[in-house]
Amino acid sequence: MPMLLACAALLAGCANPRLLQRDTPEAFWSGRLALQVEDASAQSFSAGFELKGSARQGELALFTPLGGTLAVLSWQPGSAQMQADGKTRSFDSIDALVQQATGSVIPVAALFDWLAGRDTAVPGWRADLSRLADGRVQAHRSDPLPAADLRVVLER
């Protein structure tokens, strides 16, 4: 369960007024995200999060509504780790971590672009950045199935 929660957070991000330059290691977003997977079990997840760094090297922390830490994911070229429930799991890449946890690859590099206002195309995904100025990003995955909807509300 913690891996699913951590990977769900990768699908969403939040912009924060503290963001100095969106393409530097200091890039930072925070807020709330929600992921709904349209399968037979109708899985859904929501959490607070902080995302910093870049698609190449970064960290994602997921939080409960009361502020407790659910999981912390960190990655750099050639490796990725997830800390949850007092355990650390290692992977060859952030894509491998996400694949293991969710059963499909989530476009981490595109997520950073979407949060920075760049509508990067990803096969199977459609991002809606029309409300980014209001602190909202939405993305829909139609392929591969199951379909999924990601909604992000940025902290103001």
UniProtKB/TrEMBL annotation:
Keyword Membrane appears in the UniProt entry: yes
GO BP: any one term: protein transport
Major subcellular location class: membrane
Pfam family, one: LolB
Transport among keywords: yes
SUPFAM superfamilies: Prokaryotic lipoproteins and lipoprotein localization factors (SSF89392)
Signal peptide: none
Alphabetical UniProt keywords: Cell outer membrane, Chaperone, Lipoprotein, Membrane, Palmitate, Protein transport, Signal, Transport
Entry's localization field: Cell outer membrane
Membrane topology summary: Lipid-anchor
GO cellular component, one term: cell outer membrane
Oligomer status and interactors: Monomer.
Family of this protein: Belongs to the LolB family.
Protein name: Outer-membrane lipoprotein LolB
Biological source species: Rhodoferax koreensis
